[in-house]
Amino acid sequence: MKKLLSTILLLLPIMQARAADLSIDQQIDQLLRPVAELFTGIIFYSVDIAGTQFPLIVLWLIAAAVAFTGYFGFINIRGFKHSCKVIKGDYSDPKDPGEVSHFQALATALSGTVGLGNIAGVAIAVSIGGPGATFWMIIAGFMGMSTKFLECSLGVKYRVITAKGEVHGGPMYYLKTGLAELGFKTQGKILASFFAVCCVVASLCGSNMLQSNQAYQQFVVALGNTGFWTDKGWLFGAILAVIIGVVIIGGIKSIAKVTSKVVPLMAGLYLSAAVFILIYHYSEIPRAFGLIINGAFNPEGVAGGIIGVMIQGFKRSTFSSEAGVGAASIAHATASTKEPIREGYVALLEPFIDTIVICTITALVIVITGVYQTTDGLDGVALTSSAFASVIWWFPYVLSVAVLMFAISTMISWAYYGSIAWGYLVGDSKVLDLLYKLIFCLCTAIGASVSLDAVIAISDSMFFSMAIANIIGLYLLAPGIKKDLKAYQSKYTAEN
């Protein structure tokens, strides 16, 4: 024991000296890397398929999306027109229970999905898997529309409305109550608690820290990687945390008001710049689509060949659309409606908007400009920024504003998701709710200080872990929603 203490005392000055040589950002990154490696090894356990390591969690999500698309008779296609009518307000009734409109619920959920997964995520997928990864992202997004329909219908069906009119919903509630109705009371409670824990951790370490990190990275790139801010990630994150804190303390109504304005604005700003680039290179668009299609089935220079390309596409698509993860159902549960299926129709638009439209446009910009072939050490949003700058030098500034808006809106939504999951675990307490929000803001500051590799590892693993419990519940509860869907269609859509 004495020898052990002596050794520790001898090593302590050395450890302190090493720590003194590191910046605050480097120390935080060094602290998080072992955690990131541990989580990644557990969540992304892989099997060998055609010589490529295929994460089982990705296969779990793909299988569910395909199964639900077939089970609900391609609701992702047949329900598209009705979804647009609901968003327009054709079926809205101010007397319906809930806290926000269909559009506000969609905007809040989209603010959690239309974010850096569409910018940094696409860049990562294309840089690793080549242009072909885009094709598989689109396919996964298309199938994910059916999964999103199911989980958000369940979110409204099993939501809880308090005496104050506040709505609590999401996988925690439909896993607990829905499975209890099927005779799986204990199993439902276990799965609900598991999901809630994963959601809290994902909100703090994943969808919060990654957004903060990439917003900072793009901010520094726009400044030319020089000046005061180059090693001040923690300060940038602290300022961002204050902005987030001001909004999330107001609850879902405050969040919905902000997101319903920010989401259209940020999407319009980003897409306008991206479309300008595509128009500038309009003659290259057919060739880009050719590279995407050919790369999907005949990839060259990509580890694992076609399977490797599929893995990258499906993985980034899931991170973008969140179909199968279940978090968006927390926001959709707050919609003012008495028809759970109606909100399911609204929700299926999410993967179409954030993955099929925005991700495809981002990928086209990256492929057409060719920046993915010569990354020069760039990754994530920096790669997309390079693509923008190749057309007009000041476009990275536009992207910086869009990225910052994306990051803020995504973090706001995930703060709400995490607070509902936190409340499920610890009970309805204003003090504990405030504690969670303070922790969330602290993680915002930390996220801007760590390297992209560590952030992505933690973000992906915690994010995907939520799908384990959620999809088990979706399989078991799908028959009930299918029955409700038939009743709804006969009443409102005249479909058979």
Folded structure, characterized:
This protein has 22 helices and 4 strands. By secondary structure, it is an all-alpha fold. Strands 1-2 form a two-stranded antiparallel sheet. Helix 18 crosses helix 19. The termini are far apart. About 3% of the residues have low confidence.
The CA-CA distance between the termini, in Å, is 76 Å
Strand order of the largest sheet: 1-2
Structural class determined from secondary elements: mainly alpha
Give the overall form: globular
Helix-strand sequence:
HHEEHHHHHHEEHHHHHHHHHHHHHH
For this entry, give a set of tags.
mainly alpha; two-stranded antiparallel sheet
Write the layout of secondary structure elements.
Elements: H1 2-21, H2 24-43, E1 46-49, E2 52-55, H3 56-71, H4 75-78, H5 80-88, H6 102-113, H7 117-129, H8 132-157, E3 160-161, E4 167-168, H9 171-181, H10 185-205, H11 209-222, H12 233-248, H13 251-280, H14 285-297, H15 305-321, H16 328-332, H17 340-347, H18 349-369, H19 381-389, H20 395-426, H21 430-447, H22 452-493
Antiparallel strand pairs: 1-2, 3-4
Helix pairs in contact: 2-22, 3-8, 3-22, 5-17, 6-13, 6-18, 6-20, 7-15, 7-18, 7-19, 8-14, 8-15, 8-17, 8-18, 8-22, 9-10, 9-22, 10-20, 10-22, 11-20, 11-21, 11-22, 12-20, 12-21, 13-18, 13-20, 18-19, 19-20, 20-21
Brief summary:
The chain has 496 residues and is mainly alpha-helical.
